[in-house]
Amino acid sequence: MEPLAERFRVVAIDHRGHGRGIRPHEPFSLEDCADDVASLLDVLGIRRAVLVGYSMGGAIGQLTWRRHNRRVAGLVLLATAARFDLPPGSELLTRLLAEAGRHQSSRLPLLGNSARDVHHAVRSLADFDSRPWVGARPVPARVLLTAKDRVVSPSLQRELAALVAGGRTTELALGHLAVVLDRGAVAPAVREACDGIVAEAGLDRRFRPRWPLRLRRGPRRRGRSVLRPTALL
Asked: What pLDDT digit, counting tens, does each position of 22-36 carry?
């Protein structure tokens, strides 16, 4: 997030049942996560955001665009798909741990997750299929494809790129856990993709906020109003 924060306002969310995310009583659903994203934008006073979705976050990003499309300026989708041909839960965990084993010093961000909600999340991903609607309306999008991914097949990632990004794909010779194990390679690719979205969407990035951010509309300067910047989420 630090390289992105040099250019953008970055907001990170812990989804339901993950990390420090909320622990609701109702069963986990990707649609609820998408609505959570829109609610967070409301709380932070952000009108539109570029959604950066990794793995499950890619499905949530697609659903957020479908359910709250006016809030989405663009999509950057990494190691994700329009549908997921996932192995059984135990095999999925085995694959993830095997990939993490490539780096003895790596630490997977698994602590703090709700086992129940993670289980339901995997089931939700298995049922997810955005192919009937994801390409129905144009949206600025980029797909970052992890070519050595053993969790989300590269062929499924290419299918998503053809549907939503017009084939605009950056191929990374990395595995599914690249955001943890290969941050140095992933961060520049994500930043370049976000820059492409900003240019395609015609967003004004001349006003770059400093922390702490003010959520109110800025003062008028030289006869024009300074608007809130678009955020990455």
From this structure: 888 888 899 999 999
Contact 127, 104 (CB under 8 A): no
pLDDT tens profile 176-214: 999 888 989 999 999 999 999 998 888 755 444 444 444
What are the structure tokens assigned to 212, written together?
A: 């702490």
The Cα 146–Cα 170 span in angstroms is 9
Q: Rounded CA gap, 35 and 214, in Å?
A: 24
Question: Tokens at residue 221, please?
Answer: 């300067």
Please give the domain boundaries of the chain with CATH numbers for all domains: 2-207+218-232 (3.40.50.1820)
The helix/strand count (H/E) of the chain reads as 8, 8
Q: Is the pLDDT of residue 108 over 60?
A: no
Name the strand (E) or helix (H) holding 75.
strand 72-78
DSSP state at residue 53: E
3-state secondary structure 118-132: HHHHHHHHHHCECCC
Give the N- to C-terminal CA distance of the chain in Å, as an integer: 10
Residue 52 three-state SS: strand
